[in-house]
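Mods, move this if it's the wrong board.
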Amino acid sequence: MNFPLEYTSGIMIIIAGFFFGYFLEVSGLGSPRKLNAQFTFKDWSVFKVMFVAIVVAATGLWLFDILGWVRFDALKIQTTFFWAMAAGGALLGAGLAVGGYCPGTSVVGFFSGRLDALVFMIGMVIGVFIFALSFDDLQGLYTAAKGANRETLPQLLHVPTWVILVGLIALATAGFRIGSKMEAKEKSVIRAQDLESDK
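Not the wrong board. Structure tokens:
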């Protein structure tokens, strides 16, 4: 039995999407200021929310595989193309830094009434069309440095899955501590500026 996979109907997808958007909004990630502040290391909310989601999802999938609820071989695992992922990651990061949105948060921002999110969404759709029209020319880059079919990180590094999970938790813990210290430093700078302006 693959417990969650039995209920991937359209209604379940809409419900999951609703809660995903809701939690993005209540976390403040529908605001471009949050994303821009992450890139300047002034607000680590994006890192904290996303890393918690990654650790919870990875741990959940691992436990589901052990319990036999969801087998890894039943999941769609994409083949890795290292150069394409590096280029795509760099472009996505640049878009996040300049626009203040990612594809998901732009939708949340738009439905929260932010018109700049609509502009970002339109630009994203235009970018998709440009990529589609240029795909033949880019295919060499896209297919370069192909990894093994359906290879996961534990398989790539030849370590058990729990080692990757421990590594993720260690990265999250270190990031949380560093982020909290940098946020506290930023707040002290702002307080000092406010006190100076009040004089």
